[in-house]
């Protein structure tokens, strides 16, 4: 999806995944899910269901990130606000 206009999330690191791989265990649940699930697979199909069709208004959040956050909220029984805090505080959650 290189030509789509999506909201900047601030989760991209200039070091890539190198730093995260040094800190997060490879057998952590979220690390395993990151390797097993192709999160971006349906993003180009889902973006057309956004209200502004990515061309009007604020840029939409990446559909893959929304799917990850929904899964994390179900796994850890978190509200939307708690999921956002969880992703900002825990390295494993933010990289997954």
**Count of helical stretches:** 6
Strand content: under 5%
Give, in order, the helices and strands.
HHHHHH
User: pLDDT below 50 for ≥5 consecutive residues: which ranges?
Assistant: none
The beta-strand count equals 0
Structure, explained:
This protein has 96 residues and is mostly helical. 9% of the residues are buried. The chain starts with 17 loop residues before the first helix and ends with a helix. The chain has one domain (18-95). The chain is 49% helix and 0% strand.
Brief summary of the model shown:
With 96 residues, this protein is mostly helical. Helix content is 49%, strand content 0%. It is built from six helices and no strands.
Blueprint of the fold:
Blueprint: H1 18-23, H2 29-36, H3 43-46, H4 63-76, H5 80-89, H6 91-95
Helix pairs in contact: 4-5
Descriptors:
single chain, 6 helices, mainly alpha, globular, 96 residues
């Amino acid at each position: 999806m290189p030509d789509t206009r999506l909201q900047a999330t601030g989760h991209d690191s200039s070091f890539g995944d190198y730093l995260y791989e040094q800190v997060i265990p490879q057998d952590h649940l979220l690390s395993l899910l990151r390797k097993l699930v192709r999160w971006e697979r349906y993003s180009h199909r889902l973006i057309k269901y956004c209200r502004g069709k990515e061309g009007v208004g604020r840029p939409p959040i990446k559909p893959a990130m929304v799917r990850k956050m929904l899964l994390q909220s179900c796994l850890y029984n978190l509200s939307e606000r708690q999921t956002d805090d969880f992703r900002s505080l825990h390295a494993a959650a933010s990289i997954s």
